[in-house]
Design brief:
It is built from 20 helices and 17 strands. It is α+β, with helices and mostly antiparallel strands. Strand 14 and strand 15 form a beta hairpin. Helix 15 crosses helix 17 and helix 16 crosses helix 20. The radius of gyration is 42 Å and the shape is flat.
Length: 609
């Protein structure tokens, strides 16, 4: 019978519950269309890096579904009791190990009476075996260095000319085999003619392609210095280095290098190359069981939690813990944002993450000797005080604090409350900006007038007395037009206000609240409706996809769940609060004045109706 999986509803979709070892072992039967993610990065997430490296068998920096399933099968094949997966153990119990080699390694590590091999103990044993192997390899290296510390440099110089020397001696053998081959093995006249029309240098590719030296039966490679050494100019420098670091130290100085000398040199340095190739990458073959023991201990401890952050996002949606992609908490603007992820490039990340319709704040975080970039989702409150350059504090999952500075903001609606008040805030900002511009222009004009008056006064004081100008007559028509325009403006405003008040007075008392509510709805309704649709369609997927995940579901963040991801500052329960502020600004009774003015205006409108 197929395994009966259980599912829970969260984020607007069904997610598999992975509670038992049977759930874990039968994941290969679960249709991957029901997996929340099909790939996750091995970096930038909060999970044991060594465990992820062991699961990532192709070392490409990503954990994919087949690799996770392969790790589960590998561990199950070495366990006599797979129920240990669900026990949240710190390692693997001795009684649960089925593999004989791994069991023997575990017995060698545990003290008498020990029952569980912890991940730390298995990792320490693996490191110890690796250190022993490296020490043994380094000890064998003393006999593999014919030139001591200079051996490695000699091997490098030999490798730089190996192919060209082999080519030279093969050509000489052909010349010895048949005298007719000698001319063919050397450069032809046509080769030199082709070079004659080009701009040449010692590193020219066509020169380097010519034979290393004059080919002949039994010929040697000239080892002399200078332009008349007989060596191809493109190879003179490398042959010189080979002579000084290899030939002279190993076989002594000589005018030329014969083929027998060349073979002898290679034989002497071959032992070093073989020693280098034998450098252990990890454990020696006899210690494979120790490595498997460490892998098994880690898989027993980590595979079930990893599946619940891969096949399902259980830790994230149940709020019983932190998901692997949640790397800490950002405190900023009186709020604590808990959906914080690691980011490599804020610009590239924001290009895709903006499709999530979540307000994202990117911060550069620094602490002594370290730097990182994060993206925090703000899902409660408003964005009025979120601005580039503002500072906060980021606490990572290890409890370390980082200085955080906002570097980029992807703006989206945060709450319905913010959307409701946004038209009025925009109007208030616009009016304030216009008043500031008007005041600034008036101040500039006044300052200009004062400057003109001061300049005229100085000029007048320096000039001889002049006849005072004739006083201009009062232009009645001009001022009458101004007063008429002002009167028309005031009349229009008064007429509009009177029409509104008259309309309100024409309503019954119980209709007034409905009319006010309708007016507010007319102004704030469109913004609230747009925000409501955006808040309901917030999706975690683009944020994680931009970080290298392959999210396989529409992982929605609805309004109630989103509100829980950002904690707004509140006073603790039982706290006392004093409302008197000795330094508060003295307020004028503008509200009272306004009410009186409205009452008078309504009374006049009623009287003149």
């Amino acid at each position: 019978m197929p395994h009966a999986f259980k599912f829970f509803r969260a984020g607007g979709f069904d997610q598999a519950r992975i509670d038992t070892a049977a759930d874990l072992l039968n994941l290969k039967e679960l249709d991957q269309k029901l997996w929340v993610a099909l790939s996750c990065p091995t970096t930038g997430i909060e999970f044991d890096a060594r465990t992820l490296a062991l699961i990532d068998t192709d070392n490409d920096g990503h954990i994919r579904a087949p690799e996770l399933l392969g790790a589960i099968d590998w561990a199950a094949a070495r366990l006599a009791d797979s129920s240990v997966f669900e026990n949240r153990l710190a390692g693997v119990p001795l009684a649960a190990i089925k593999d004989e080699a791994v069991l023997a390694a575990a017995n060698g590590l545990l003290p008498e009476g020990g029952a569980l091999v912890s991940v730390e103990a298995a990792s320490a044993a693996e490191a110890e075996y690796a250190a022993r192997a490296l020490a043994a390899w380094e000890a064998a290296g003393a006999a593999a260095r014919p030139l001591g510390d200079a051996t490695e440099g000699a091997c490098t110089a030999l490798a730089a000319v190996r192919e060209k020397l082999d080519d030279f001696f093969v050509r000489c053998r052909l010349a010895a085999f048949d005298a007719r081959a000698e001319d063919a093995m050397n450069a032809s006249d046509d080769s030199f003619k082709a070079l004659g029309g080009a701009a040449l240098s010692n590193g020219h590719a066509d020169i380097a392609a010519l034979p290393l030296a004059r080919v002949g039966a039994g010929a040697t490679v000239p080892l002399g210095a200078g332009i008349d050494s007989g060596i191809n100019p493109a190879w003179a420098e490398r042959i010189g280095a080979f002579r000084e670091t290899v030939v002279v130290p190993l076989i002594g100085a000589r005018p030329g290098l014969s083929e027998s000398d060349w073979l002898a040199i290679q034989d002497q340095l071959a032992v070093f190359n073989a020693w280098q190739a034998a450098k252990p990458a990890g454990l020696p073959p006899e210690a494979e069981a120790v490595r498997d023991l460490e892998r098994l201990a880690r898989y027993v401890r980590d595979l079930l939690p990893l599946a619940n952050n891969f096949v399902a996002f259980r830790d994230f949606y149940t709020r019983q813990g932190k998901a692997t992609f949640q790397i800490g908490t950002l405190y900023l603007d009186g709020r604590a944002a808990e959906l914080v992820i690691s980011v490599n490039d804020a610009g590239k990340h924001a290009a895709l993450a903006g499709l999530s319709r979540i307000c994202l704040v990117y911060c550069d975080c620094v602490r002594p000797g370290a730097r990182q970039t994060i993206a925090a989702a703000f899902t409660a409150g408003d964005s009025d005080q979120l601005m580039v350059g503002r500072n906060g504090v980021f606490y990572d999952r290890q409890g370390r604090d980082w200085d955080a500075t906002i570097s980029k903001i992807v703006d989206h609606p945060i709450s319905l409350r913010q959307a409701f008040w946004s038209p009025y805030k925009k109007l208030a900002r616009m009016v304030a900006e216009q008043l500031q511009k008007l005041a600034a222009s008036k101040a500039t004009a006044v300052e200009g007038k004062l400057a003109e008056v001061a300049a005229a006064t100085v000029k007048k004081a320096d000039a001889p007395p002049a006849k005072p100008p004739a006083q201009q007559a009062f232009d009645v028509g001009k001022f009458a037009g101004i007063f008429a325009a002002i009167g028309l403006a005031v009349g229009a405003i008064g007429t509009a206000a009177a029409a509104v008040v008259t309309g309100l007075l024409g309503l019954k008392w119980w209709q007034l609240p409905l009319a006010v509510a309708g007016l507010l709805l007319l102004i704030s309704g469109p913004a609230v409706i747009v925000a409501w649709f955006k808040l309901r369609s917030r999706n975690l997927g683009p944020i994680l996809d931009a970080n290298g995940w392959a999210v396989n579901a529409r992982a929605r963040i609805n309004i109630p769940f989103g509100t829980s991801l950002t904690q707004v500052a509140t006073l603790p329960e039982g706290a006392e609060r004093a409302l008197s502020d000795p330094y508060a600004e003295k307020e004028r009774p503008w509200k009272t004045y306004g009410v009186i003015a409205v009452v008078i205006f309504i009374a006049l409108a009623w009287w003149t109706r």
